[in-house]
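Entry 14. Structure prediction run on the chain below.
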Amino acid sequence: MGEKGEAACEKVGRCAEHGKKLVYFCRLEKLKVCSKCAITGSHRGHTVVPVEEALSELKELLSARLVKLEAESLEQTSRLGEIEHNMTAAQEEAEMLQQQVQEDFAILRSFLDSEEKVLMEWIATEKQHILEELERLKAECLERAKHLSLLMDPFKAVLQSTNLSDVLKVLNISSDGSSHPCETANDPVVRFEAEKFCGPLQYKVWKRMLQIIQTVPEAYTFDHLTAHPHLEISTNRRSVIPRREALPVDYANGRFDTCLCVLGTEAISTGKHYWEVTVNKKAKWDLGVAYSSVPRHGDIFYRPSRGIWCLTLRDGYCYEACDEHDIQLEVQHSPGRIGIYVDYEGGVVLFFDAETMLMLHAFRTHFTDQLLPLYSPCTMEEAVPGDQRLTIFKLNV
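Output returned:
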């Protein structure tokens, strides 16, 4: 029997070939059949079950598929909600950032405009003063020149004369002082001293601009009481140097005893902070921030879930951001100084190439405890020449 015939018979409830009721279901061909079809007919040897059993099984299958589809639908609904939330957040954050950028640049422009105005007014005032003084000197000079010209006229005339009496007369007049010019000393000729306004103008303005810049490299220090015994802290507490031999220090509770780490002295629990660490050409180091409660004994794991946000360098070229799964970074230029920026309320930790100010990586989180800078120069590299210290950069102005 063909498929069309069987389908037509199924509608009337009886087998078209045998006239019997379709009380069974063929699992192979997924059709209702009669008893003769199942035993001697075209469905002989196929797996057949009563229609009621097949209906129950098929409903269970449909129910399972429905559950799966509903789960997928719920997942897409949740994903849609996340997408819409992120769209709204992107719009709001971008607008806030744009407003902040406008405000920051407005402050800089206002400062530069004010500096320019003051300097231009100063130059104009100085120019006016010099020009007025030169005009006065010019008038005096012209007056003296006119007077001298009048005095010289008799001399010029008598030099053409052959009369001795006329020559003597002029000499007598000139010797009695009546023909001498005024005995007034000439004031020095002033000039416009442009050098007063020259020099490193942009640098001088930049130094004054630091007064209005809220975030500049902060001169942080190392907490020597937390330094691993194989780490030496400099006298000014801004350099840390790995040593082959342990230093004679007290193994206090707050000191790292396994990982070659040291914490910063300055705690961060609010605000925005930025500092820079000079790494020179070191082939390995660890830099970041950690909760002040970070374990000091035994191995520690650089993970945000452990309260540590860290960037590492290995082999001189392998930069990694230590997220829950390490993220290898593509860094074209090996920076000699790393910048670290923390916005506590914003939940942001950023790492920069401090020489180009290109961002290397960003962590986004929500802080629940005070932070401390975390540093590690790693172990002494025997085969590597040169300085192996880490130094906290101080902006000297």
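The two ends are 99 Å apart (CA to CA).
Filed with the rest of this week's runs.
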